[in-house]
Specification:
about 130 residues, 4 helices, alpha+beta, 5-stranded antiparallel sheet
């Protein structure tokens, strides 16, 4: 009976998971190193980050898009494989953000869409992680 109890407790512990971070599977690769790095940086800074690679047929979308939020402020990060593609689609992005009075900042092959202006400390973290 004692060995059955130990086995049962062991199975329950494994089945329910634990707080051990080794039990959490790693995030899937996004396909662009800069996007993987930005996601990790933002999460380490306490942001919730969702998103991923564009759908195969969506030619106007960034190659990888992430949405970072903390304290209700949301920011879109768009990563492109080339600067040429980022420049070509920049006008589409700028036109889209006009609908909600947002702003766009592009550096190289990365664009950040500010849905609303976050506090200065959050903006600095996002810029450091994205660019």
């Amino acid at each position: 009976m004692r060995s059955l109890l130990v086995l049962t407790v062991s199975l329950v512990s494994v089945g329910c998971g634990s707080d051990n971070s080794a039990d959490v599977p790693p995030d899937p690769e996004l396909g662009l190193h800069c996007a993987d790095r930005a996601r990790a940086c933002l999460r380490d800074a306490g942001f919730q980050v969702v998103g991923g690679p564009r759908a195969p047929g969506d030619r106007d979308a960034p190659d990888v898009e992430l949405i970072a939020s903390r304290d209700g402020a949301g920011t879109f990060l768009a990563f492109y494989r080339t600067v040429k593609r980022a420049k070509r689609l920049e006008g589409v992005v700028r036109h889209s953000v006009q609908r909600f009075n947002g702003s766009v900042e592009r550096r190289g092959a990365t664009s950040v869409v500010w849905v609303r202006r976050p506090p200065a400390d959050q903006r600095m973290i996002i810029e450091d992680c994205a660019f």
